[in-house]
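We emphasize that the prediction below concerns an isolated chain of 591 residues; any contacts that depend on oligomerization or on bound cofactors are therefore not represented. The input was used exactly as deposited, without trimming of termini.
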Amino acid sequence: MLLVSTDVPAPSEILVQLIGTSSVTLAWDSPDNISTFALTYYDTAAAKTYTITNDTAIEVEDLCPGTEYTFTLVSVSDNEKRSVGVEVTACTRPVPPENFKVESVGTTSVTLIWDASGCEENKFHVVCSHDGKIIQEERKESRTVVFRDLIPGKKYSFHITKVLPNGNRSKEAVTYAQTKTNIQSLLHDLGLEQYYPNKLSLSDVLQIDKRSVTDEPAQSLSSLPWLFLKKLMMVNVTARSVKYSSDEIEDWSNLDVYNDPLSFFKDQKSSVNPLDIVTALFLCSDCFLQQEMVSKMSMCQFSVPLLLPKCDTQQCMYMLWAMRDIVKKCRPHSLSDSKGFVEDRIVHSELPLVSFVRLGDCSISKSQILNKLLSNPQQYHDTFVHHDMDCGDIPRKISNGLVEMGWYLPCGNENIDVFPEPVAVANLRGDIRTFETQYSFLCQTSTAVFVFFDSLDTNYKLLTNQHAKAQFFLVGNVQRKAFNVDQLKRTASEMSLKKNNIILKTNQNDANFVKNLHSVVNHIINNHPAKACLEKMDTIAHELGIQVDEDIQDCQKAKNNAHVLTTNIKETLQFKKDQLPLQGQIWKDLA
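Result of the prediction step, given as a token string:
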């Protein structure tokens, strides 16, 4: 039996000098004539005692991480008597989470995982930081966490500590991740990473292989670009209607539409907006494939890229070289009596350019209205991709900022033609507040700019600050709650607009609305002399800092070679007649 005597002086206060994950270092002052001490603590319900001789400090090892211990120290006299005990409580530090790493990275999310060891209760504090500022933080008991709503293309640091109920924390573990840009994510999904940027050539597309000679439907996202290119090279007007169907057969027999989450609707995850496929392919194609694609798209009467966005930057490319191969033939009503027609390269043609843009959110489908505007009621055609086309409702990832161009070319028949004279139409995808460079370019090159809006609010200043040559028209939807007449009047006054420059959609249907829009565009074509020539618009592009594809060395070399070959051709028809005297009319038409 241990004897406790008040005659034996007790040690002074015990100091905790150092705490680790599995050890605690204690120190104390020795009373006079005492050289032996006994230290006792409990570990998993069993008492452990250390005897310390000729020392006033001890490192207690083999402790459990994240555990609170009470240490009792007594002085031991020469006759084995013991003093009253002195106590101190210390808690070992938790073991930091191990293997803290990034499991997956998306454009706006990062998933982290880690291992947890130790006998303590597992609770973790995870922090997401960017440029030294805390963006988000999570407290978890599991061993994984997902941070969402991050910014594409940004580098983030992630810090994790294990937290005990008493507030004690482990050392910090850190890892880093950079979210994917939208283009990186989409190119990965489409299997085009190896071709970015501008590495896909015409020979790659025209190569004959199993994929090119079979009509198998697309089975994955990576099949979609090739299916689009295959159809496009065949001038198939269904080229933009590409989507894949998985071989997996889903069992819907036990589906409870009231209680099951709506995650079984996979369309938006397994599909891509056609505009994103087109944009991705142009970004991956070299200048010669781009020219071939534009030529084929024009034959299909698809809109073609005029300004190609560089996706995750604010830069864009003016696609002048890509459009040089387009030749258009039309018969304006001014030549119908003489049965004449006009045939010219589209980049040389001087045509009225009517541009359509959007300010903020807009309930009117601009692209769908444009298709109806450019189509004869008996010959409707989707020049521009719109919400109601196959996969047109899939949110765009990389094609916002794209400016597309289409043309209406009359055939000389007044009963069929929508417009009596040829006209070029440009369509900006996305909000002009985000793409001011593209908007400025259109304002300085267009004959007229139609701005679709639901609410002007304070955004009207963006409209009035442009040093534009174009005539402006405001197109609003009166039926929307956000529509405000006072804002419209104030904006019209600031822009010096007349009543004829304001087009409002009331409770009328699209047919009547398009009819009103048609009369305005027709008036512009007939009464405004300002016309645009694509070949001359590169000057404005350079002034606004927009890159021009024709400035690339390969394009310049090809342009010079083409000029040498065609420099003696003054009149195309006469050249054909002189150089092909033995060929028939059909052959001359084909040539």
